[in-house]
Task: inverse folding
């Protein structure tokens, strides 16, 4: 028999997307009440200062993520690796102004933006759809999850409050 808390924690660890309480219960064949209790216990345990992860709730689901104060320290170990600053600037432009035409990104960021856009598409942070002779670019759900956002508007709002 599975230990509900251990099974829920393992499911959250291996998932690349937020999992709803119902998805966890269905996938692990555990009653929803037990999943709920396990989530509460996991969250409580992870609040300890000597723990590096936190249980985060987003878009109706739960996920484990690195505590904010540790993100920079562990970034070199991230599977995506560090994103070079010029590529991050291009990503920020797309997130802030998107959906945005690729031609406009190149006009603002220069010819190297083509390579930046290719890298961002490969990383799964940006999607492109044809639009006449150019493409329209916008951020993906992977971008939102990676940066802990619920919507592109969250990025725009946080950017405005920092200015």
Result:
């Amino acid at each position: 028999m599975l230990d509900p808390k251990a099974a829920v924690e393992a499911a959250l660890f291996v998932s690349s997307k937020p999992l709803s309480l119902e998805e966890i219960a269905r996938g692990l064949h555990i009653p929803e009440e037990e999943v709920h209790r396990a989530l509460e216990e996991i969250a409580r345990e992870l609040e300890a200062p000597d723990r590096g992860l936190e249980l985060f709730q987003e878009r109706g689901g739960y996920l484990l993520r690195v505590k904010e104060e540790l993100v920079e320290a562990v970034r070199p170990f991230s599977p995506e690796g560090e994103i070079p600053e010029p590529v991050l600037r291009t990503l920020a432009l797309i997130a802030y102004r998107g959906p945005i035409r690729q031609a406009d990104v190149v006009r603002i960021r220069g010819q190297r933006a083509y390579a930046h856009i290719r890298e961002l598409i490969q990383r799964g942070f940006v999607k492109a759809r044809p639009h006449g002779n150019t493409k329209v670019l916008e951020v993906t759900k992977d971008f939102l999850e990676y940066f802990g956002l619920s919507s592109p508007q969250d990025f725009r709002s946080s950017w405005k409050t920092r200015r």
